[in-house]
Amino acid sequence: xxxxxxxxxxxxxxxxxxxxxxxxxxxxxxxxxxxxxxxxxxxxxxxxxxxxxxxxxxxxxxxxxxxxxxxxxxxxxxxxxxxxxxxxxxxxxxxxxxxxxxxxxxxxxxxxxxxxxxxxxxxxxxxxxxxxxxxxxxxxxxxxxxxxxxxxxx
Length: 154
Description:
Blueprint: H1 4-45, H2 54-62, H3 65-96, H4 103-149
């Protein structure tokens, strides 16, 4: 016996899962790109003389990096969630066929489910690369400030 709610949920996911996962990953990509461009512009134009101490400097340098890191760390999990749900739907469909298994249909269902993981990885890789580049740039700017403005121990 099948619960009507279960059928509605499976049917909803069958029709909208790709849109939901691609939408979430697309939003994550846009946020990551925006933050990367904003930080790149900020680092290029910042005036180191505006910062009286390293605490103020560090706050300014590190602002906006957390979302880039968070997206890089979590995008694969969003993709994996899409894959797991896609495989769940495929297994549900196999169960509904009552023993009449169409291997081609199963393979197509599994292949389509795996694309969500691939998309998650495609979002994560540039996020991690940009995060690493930006944290390196922040370190360089911090060292430049220390060389120019920190009291020199003699």
